[in-house]
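Could someone model LJ27NJHV with this protein?
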Amino acid sequence: MSMIAAFYGGKSILITGATGFLGKVLMEKLFRTSPDLKVIYILMRPKAGQTLQQRVFQILNSKLFEKVKEVCPNVHEKIRAIYADLNHSDFAISKEDMQELLSCTNIVFHCAATVRFDDPLRRAVQLNVTATQQLLLMASQMPKLEAFIHISTAFSNCNLKHIDEVIYPCPVEPKKIIQSMEWLDDSIIDEITPKLIGDRPNTYTYTKALGEMVVQQESGNLNIAIIRPSIVGATWQEPFPGWVDNLNGPSGLIIAAGKGFLRAIKATPMAVADVIPVDTVVNLTLAVGWYTAVHRPKSTLVYHCTSGNFNPCNWGKMGIQVLATFEKIPFERAFRRPYADFTSNNFMTQYWNAVSHRAPAIIYDFYLRLTGRKPRMTKLMNRLLKTLSLLEYFINRSWEWSTYNTEMLMSELSPEDQRVFNFDVRQLNWLEYIENYVLGIKKYLLKEDMAGIPEAKQHLKRLRNIHYLFNTALLLIAWRLLIARSQMARNVWFFIVSFCYKLLSYFRASSTLKV
Ligand SMILES: CCCCCCCCCCCCCCCCCCCCCCCC(=O)SCCNC(=O)CCNC(=O)[C@H](O)C(C)(C)COP(=O)(O)OP(=O)(O)OC[C@H]1O[C@@H](n2cnc3c(N)ncnc32)[C@H](O)[C@@H]1OP(=O)(O)O
Ligand SMILES: NC(=O)C1=CN([C@@H]2O[C@H](COP(=O)(O)OP(=O)(O)OC[C@H]3O[C@@H](n4cnc5c(N)ncnc54)[C@H](OP(=O)(O)O)[C@@H]3O)[C@@H](O)[C@H]2O)C=CC1
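Reply:
Sure, complex below.
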């Protein structure tokens, strides 16, 4: 019997960010392994014209929850969607709901965050720092609370090369940052942002570091732990391999490469691709929840959930395997044949951006205009280039994360828990994982049918022929222009033609002799 699964039985669990990538997998695993849990409260907001109930209905009826419905048929009754907007000072939770949350919650998993790299500092602080502070304040009023688990990121201290499982201080106190956001106007905030984030690449990593400081400072008597996952990727094993539902991290770029938009990328092939499957993060999170509540460590423990020092894979290997998978499982209606290369210097990056990204987009938009349609490729390409520039920082560096606490926890688990809540990435086969990841993107993100693979292959063959035809035509035009302008080119051309003619005559003569 799994001790961790038994621990969550009968518990009232509060999850923020339950509608996000990580939150959904966390809920799924909780229901599947502890179907006797009492209730999961999810703090959520209506979105895209959907009410809370419609959003919950959609999640529970998705493929991800198919197994849950077998083991926990009354799962609908065990989810309590509570209206909350973490951008509001008191989360805009009703009095009655707040009363219930405060009096019943046993465990809190705080997953909600803005993970955008380009968010203005004010927005990132509100969600990643102020909301964390407010949630901790709520937690301190929960008499039955056993553990508070805060999800951070392994990149919160990406300005360092070696990162320990400790909370590093930022130069300006989070409380001061929160206060200043209340009275500074947007233009001043924009001006001071580069100074505040210092040698971090964006407001996301900076505010996640501030969030950790808040957790440390406001922890009081709470049992708290922090989990720092690296780049969260598709599921490895559970509930099935390859599940993914958003474009963050590598997923968006895999689509861009598979559809033939992305042809070159500024990346260091030998840099470690510290991707971690989302189900591994969830297993560690649930194990940490159990350990924190049951063993009550004296201080706030930080757990790195990374793959690099257990089972490293680099971007070069990942890129090659992604491209190899496209051969077997191509995406439908590709713009160009998938082929991408890593470039290492700025000049080559600019060159490939002009030749392989911008020029084809301009030509295609010109074609769309000619055929009376609305041009869209240049806009799409500009977005892709913006995304590439934001991700560049992470694919040209390697980090070392120490994992003492994570290894300690692994050794504390019973063999059964090690199996049910497996977070040992030494067992991960990268080639298999990447293939399933690409397949998952095709099925669950692009919603493409596997029956369309022969047609997709046929389409790629047509694109290859168009490519050859285009290159040949280009070569001939260039050559024709050269001949018209240069005597030397004419001489070379005359030499080649007469040489070919002689070669042909020779073969013809020798074949006549044989007969
Ligand atoms: C040798 C051969 C080599 C061959 C190589 C070829 C294969 C390539 C495979 C290798 C892949 C390598 C990939 C490396 C990726 C590394 C990522 C590292 C990240 C580490 C970060 C730390 C981890 C974390 O803690 S946080 C989680 C990560 N967070 C993110 O990833 C967020 C990033 N996203 C953003 O910040 C924004 O969404 C942004 C700025 C990218 C776009 O903002 P914008 O306002 O312009 O657009 P949106 O409204 O958000 O969306 C508009 C449009 O774009 C689509 N989109 C959104 N995100 C992405 C994305 N990441 N990639 C592509 N497209 C994206 C979105 O769906 C919208 O589309 P619509 O059609 O308009 O709906
Ligand atoms: N994905 C990754 O690669 C990594 C993620 N992490 C961390 O993991 C956690 C989860 O990330 P992930 O699941 O990928 O992120 P998602 O963007 O998929 O999910 C974010 C969640 O936060 C919720 N949220 C955002 N703003 C608000 C708000 N104002 N009020 C209420 N809820 C809000 C979203 O709700 P809604 O659906 O309504 O928008 C959503 O449920 C984050 O803390 C992130 O920093 C760490 C390392 C890597």
